[in-house]
Design brief:
single chain, 174 residues, alpha+beta, Aminopeptidase, 25% helix, 34% strand, globular, binds coenzyme A
């Protein structure tokens, strides 16, 4: 298994987040949604994250005890390969999570070890239920979630460009 650790970035290291979010290959999963927030590009899924926003983002996100964000660092190559996050509701102790691996590192086995670390970290931070929403056509990703103990709790449809997409709601009690 890949030897990784989760690394909380400093403001100066937010270049990697910008690199991921401006890369159409990495962000393709995020394209085509009818959402309108500043900096979102529906055609590619990319999200603007210029350097003048880094400090403000770090202040509101990295210093928020209910929000966890970390890079996935390959210990052997000393490279950042992706990032993970979760957002905890302090009342319900539920947290919604996300994981993104930069496209050039896809298919190299980073997802499972990174997910294992996220689950560990969520437990440490008092999360009782970890949830995610995953399009059902991301079968390889869903298999890893289910292998790690996530259960399907529901589904909904959303529109990606002009196609209906079925999205699974999944949850793990931790
Ligand atoms: C989903 C995502 C995180 C997967 O990352 P990845 O690093 O490419 O994943 P891995 O290489 O670890 O592969 C995941 C699983 O699929 C399997 N897999 C990968 N390529 C495969 C292939 N061509 N055929 C069969 N299985 C394959 C792997 O073996 C692995 O399973 P295992 O841990 O049981 O061996 C990545 O594609 C991504 O960032 N996507 C965009 C965001 C996203 O969808 N996030 C997740 C849900 S919202």
């Amino acid at each position: 298994m890949k030897n990784i650790k989760l690394h909380k970035p400093t403001v100066d290291e937010l270049w990697f987040r910008e690199k991921c979010m401006s890369d159409p290959n990495t962000m393709a999963y995020n394209a085509g949604y009818d959402v309108s927030f500043e900096g979102y590009h529906k055609d590619t899924g990319c999200i603007d994250f210029p350097q003048d926003k880094w400090q403000e983002w770090a202040n509101t996100k990295l210093n928020n005890s209910n929000f966890f964000y970390a890079y996935i660092l390959d210990i052997e190559t000393n490279q950042f390969v992706g990032y993970v996050n979760f957002n905890k509701d302090p009342k319900t102790k539920r947290a919604t999570m996300g994981i993104v691996i930069k496209s050039e590192f896809h298919g190299q086995g980073y997802m499972r070890p990174a997910m294992m670390k996220v689950i560990e970290m969520a437990k440490e931070k008092g999360v009782e239920f970890l949830t995610d929403t995953v399009p059902e056509n991301r079968e390889k990703a869903l298999k890893v979630f289910y292998d790690l103990g996530f259960k399907k709790t529901g589904k909904f449809t959303s529109k990606k460009f002009d196609q209906e997409e079925v999205v699974a709601e999944i949850e793990k009690e931790i």
